[in-house]
Amino acid sequence: MFVRFITRLNQFPKLILLVIFALSAFFFVQARDGLFDPDSGRLRINSTVEPFIERNSGAYQQFLDTREAFGSEEVVVIALHNTEKEPVGLDYLLTLSHLKADVEAKVPGISKVLSMLDIPQASGKCAGKSYFHQMGIGSVCLSVLEKYEHQISCLNKSSSINISADDEAILLKLKKIISNKGEKNLEESLEEGIEDDLEESPEENLEESLEESLDESLEESPDEDVADSGDSVTEADTSNDSSLDCTLEKSSSSPQKIHADTEAKIRKTVSSLKSHPLFQGDVLSKDASTAALIITFNPESKPESAETQQIIKQLLVKHQQNLEISDTLRIAYAGQPRQINKASRLIRQDMQLILPMSLLLIVIVLLIAFRSIKAVFVPLLVVLFGILWTAGIIGWVGDELNLVTMACAPIIVCVGSAYVIKFLNQYQTETLEIKQERSAEEPLASIPQIITATLNSVTVPVTVTAITTVAGFIALVVSPIPAVQQLGLYSSVGIISINLFTLTLAPALLHYIHMPEIATSEEGKGLLNHLFRLIAVWLRLHSKRLIWIWLLIAGFAAFGMLGLSINSSTKTFPEESQLVKDLKLIENELSGTDTLRLLFKAETGSDSQQSSANNPLKTAKTIYGLKELQDWMFQVNGATEIDNIKGLRIDKFHSPVDVLAHYRMGLDKLTDEEVVQFFEKTSENGPRFLSTAEDVLQVTIRMRSNGSTAFLALRDMLLLKVPELLPHLKFSYTGGGVLSSESANNIAQGQINSVFLALIIVFVILSLLFLSWKMGVIALFPNVITILVFFGSLGWLDIPIGVTISVIAAIALGIGVDDTIHFLSHYNENANKLRNKREASLKTLPIVARPMMFSTIALSAGFILFAQSEMESQVLFGTFTALTLLVCLAIDMTFLPSVVMETGLITVWDYVGLKFDEEFIAGIDLFQNMTVREAKIASLMAYPEDLKQGGLLFSEGDIGDEMYVILEGSISIFLEKNGKRTDLVRLEKGNTFGEMGLFRKAERSASAEAAEKTRLLVVNRDCLEPLKKRNPKIAAKLFLNLANRLQLSLKDTDERLLEQKDFNLSSLEAKLNNDEKLAEQEVSIKPEDLWENLGAKWRQKLQSFSETHKVAKGKRLSKIKNNKGDFLFITSGTVEIASIVSPKSDSFSVGYCWTRKDFDLIGEFALCTANETATARAIARQDSTLMQFAEAKLIALAEQESRLAAQFLEDVVCLLSDQLAIADKRLQNH
Q1: Total count of domains within the chain
Q2: How does it sit in the membrane (predicted)?
Q3: pLDDT at 210
Q4: Tell me, what CATH number does 657's domain have?
Q5: Which domain holds residue 613?
Q6: Which of 149, 235, 532, 755 has a CA between 20 and 30 Å from the CA of residue 434?
Q7: What pLDDT shows up at residue 1060?
């Protein structure tokens, strides 16, 4: 029905083209509006972690809640590094200060910018100000940098007597600012300083007892020399303040001396801060040679945008040109926003450059294949329209492309090219076949006729292939990760679109685009034809050896899979890229840019968290627990489990622990009250370790990891360790890094699982397609080997499975299934024509190998261009896709034909094509006791043959090896001697004939021709062996029907023999002796050997389905009922069957006597009926034991022990064939 619909639809090519082009215009608009930026025109790619975070769990909502409560964790770190490894000095800090001001003024979406110039002193004379503030004139804390710039400015102006009005205004403004600051008391200054702090660097002036303890501690602190040792701060009269008045500066000072003095102060301060826990690793390196800016962004901002990244880059270039320090200054910046921007940009570049080059290379290969520029447009347009429709649907739905869904394009290119190339090759093949079959008088076939013939051949296999491939991809839709869901959905959409275009757009285009004809195999002198002939020779000689070779390769690959690892590595970009160099510098000099947020909550149901004073989060117990956790992570007390995580370096542990420990000079005797006061102060002005509702405590870990495996290993250890150290709190974690690592690993693992799930789905479909689960395994096996080789190669090469590379297996599976189904569909056609599975497989190879080879080479050449990408993941993706496709081609051209040659396959479309019903099979001898389904499968294991009226089937004297069943029409059996024909019998529909040729390869005793238009079912040994292996129950019933047929023939022959009346009594003994010699000549196998080969286990089972009879010597077998379809075996003793005059007479007739012993089948027992028609009588000449099998019992045996039944009944057929052959010879001799 579907084929008829497609062929009728293609009768309107213009309408098809009009509809497709109209819909394509609509999808073009949807793709343009939905996937491209309206301002820049660039393709929008969502490179953030959000598409990879599971939506259904609470992890994503917790991620959003934490970002709302504590701010975004996405930061950009800008490092100013002294290449000579000297501590940063005045010029570096001036550059840092100016860069910070520019960043705050020009970069959009900034929340805070933190540097070493912003961290406030907790106490002292300049408490609340940075460590680079010192007490100045009028007891006002002045920035050393501001003072230096002011002094230099004053020197520059000293040569001028008159001060301009603008300078006076600036001076007045500066004085006013300083005066306003001087009015505030120490506590207000501290609070102001904390407001400018960043949450990673908590430091503030605590009240009451904590404040006093901190002051006491600071009296002995080495940081005390950073501030001046003058009197305590007092309220100043702002109107009289003149601390920045140029008239008070020493006129004798030179710029060099001012610079030297300030440099000394700066170096002294920097030196004292190197080991400060709030500086080290964040804003200052351990050796003080690198200072940093940490930029945090608002949650709603897009720091990864091209505009933001361009502004940052321009600012860095500007400040890199500082003449004072340009020779030693190296500015680097890193962070997730930069990596996201870089990845998006490189992907767009690959899409804009490599994808068109890949398509161009594919076009060149197709041009070589089809030798026509016009013909190339057909596959090119099918692929492009498939991509366009898929992109349009994505834009129409409103989804964005991400790093996973970008794989939809290569998937569509792969599958689409394969579909349409096979269609075009079939079109050329049909053109050639129609041309060869056409007689000289017949007109040339029209294009619509060729298209119809092509569609009849390819519609079902192409559609089945599409359904099978979609089934594999649609399994991804159940994933909870949005990116994976979209990959499965939109890949399926693309494949369905390609299937539709292959069956509609491609035929419609062929009405207007001429396809060149291909040469016949006899004419083909080219390299390809020579290669195909060489492969065919190898397959003919070494098919089993090739199967074993591939099985060994698969086993070796499977062993390599033991070394597989899943790790979404951070090594996305090449080592020589500036991004990686900057990242390494920052990670080596400061801290890693990976972060993990640890979240703590009070146990559910705890009433204490309602009271701030009794909140479990705000207790000394919690602080001590965090301290133990920190010591465990930094391995303070010796190596811990952390040391076992490869590729992980923990740099910072941002928590209240370091702040309290630093300013209290330790955590000894810490009280709950001190902790409560600490959190109260930080909740007002400082970095927030507690949420607003004080129900969540956050600790941030900064680290360096080489991929998701290390990240997740730390997570797993924390899940075990934290409850041990903080049992009174509930622990969870969040952060884009860990969630994206989880999702990346889930995607990679999910892809692996989905591939195996897809294999299961494909197996089910192939099993239904080939009507046997065993054949489903065989048909699937080439694809399994491809997958094993792919994953095994990754294991042996120690390449971890990441998000991108895991998609390759799905591509390979899609191509592999496509090649398998197309090969088998062509094989079926050739098998029906040649009636030999080996020859059919060899003939199929060059037909399907040509499109398989061209499509694979084209695709591999296209994908290998991805090796030029700057992204390592893209390089691996392109390289491994190309290699996997080539492996798939090799398997499909060697392993698949070899398997088919050794097994044989039937398909569901042949099954559906058989118009069998119960009435039909009731009239066919061979199908008795079978269901319609079983009769169809039995028929499909054989070969159909159509004869025209008068068509000769075989001639007398031919050596036969086939049996025939008449499905339609009739066959005349005749003898021809001396030109005179004698018709013997006319066999009608349902009759079986030629069975002796099948089992004994005997000479045909007569000729056979079609009396009318006739359709036959041809059965040979090539059919029966696969049937026994794959469907033993059906084989058993078929053998049972053959045995009944042979037993009737044996009875008929014996009765004709006994009807002979010209016996001479004197020659009877001689004839009987000759018959014994004849039996020895004609028997192909001894009965006792058949019985012995069954084995003791099977013989015992057989006895349970039989009835045993014991007969004493000299007794007749009269008590054994002889029903139609029964078979009687002698297991011990001797039985003689003698002809009689009549059933009422005991006298011996002048005829024959048969003696059976040694586990033989008493075929002649059919003559011993219990009525007047009996022509023989059976007598036991020794004490004998017999085993009788009733037809009902044999059918039960076929149902319950199908393999045993198939073998046993085949043996019965062989015994009856021997007995019938002997009977025929006897009849001929008389």
Answers
A1: 5
A2: Multi-pass membrane protein
A3: 39
A4: 3.30.70
A5: 590-734
A6: 532
A7: 64
